[in-house]
Amino acid sequence: MEETDEKAPSVIDRYYTRWYKTDMKGKSCEDHCVLQHSNRICVITLAETHPVLRKGSKIKSINYRISDGCSRLNNKVSGKSKRGGQFLTEFAPLCRITCTDNVEYTIFSCIRGRLLEVNEDIIMSPDLLLEKPSTEGYIAVILPKLEESKRVTNSLLTREQYEEVVSKRTTQQPQPC
């Protein structure tokens, strides 16, 4: 048998489709990634071009408290149909990340659906977000409505489209993100 240098695809690459939302809310380079599983579940993460991951920043805090009356940590779901989960729109804030240079980034849901869980582990270990953003450092898990699950990615970019946007940024901007 001939040896091959190719690695087996990761779990993410095998079971999830990557979708991207670039320049969230008009903020340059604040890109988000949505990992969509075939069972409709979507995992919200930071895209590799997000400033938190690119600048070599250190995270001071991650806060799931959106306002005085709304904390994503209070989200409780139960049962097969995931009753009780907070319903989110595309631009619903999930959390706020504050870096040690006091720059704050708001992470948005990017899709409509029911919030199943937030990743409380990154509150205690923010380095997970920096080291493993697509796996243990994810932000949240969202379940789109069944009838919307096919359309949920209409406003998102494929991997190829995302790479085109990133490529154009680096050629058009004097300073990369």
Automatic annotation (TrEMBL):
Keyword Transferase annotated: no
Cellular component per GO, a single term: filopodium tip
Keywords, ordered alphabetically: Cell projection, Nucleus
Locations listed in the record: Cell projection, Dendrite; Cell projection, Growth cone; Cell projection, Lamellipodium; Nucleus speckle
GO BP annotations listed: dendrite morphogenesis; regulation of actin filament polymerization; regulation of filopodium assembly
Main location: other
Coiled-coil intervals: none
Pfam entry (one): GCV_H
Highest taxon of source: Eukaryota
InterPro entries with a match to the protein in the record: Abitram (IPR039169), GCV_H/Fam206 (IPR033753), Single_hybrid_motif (IPR011053)
Keyword hit for Nucleus: yes
Family as reported in the entry's similarity comment: Belongs to the ABITRAM family.
Protein name from the UniProt record: Protein Abitram
Organism per entry: Electrophorus electricus (Electric eel)
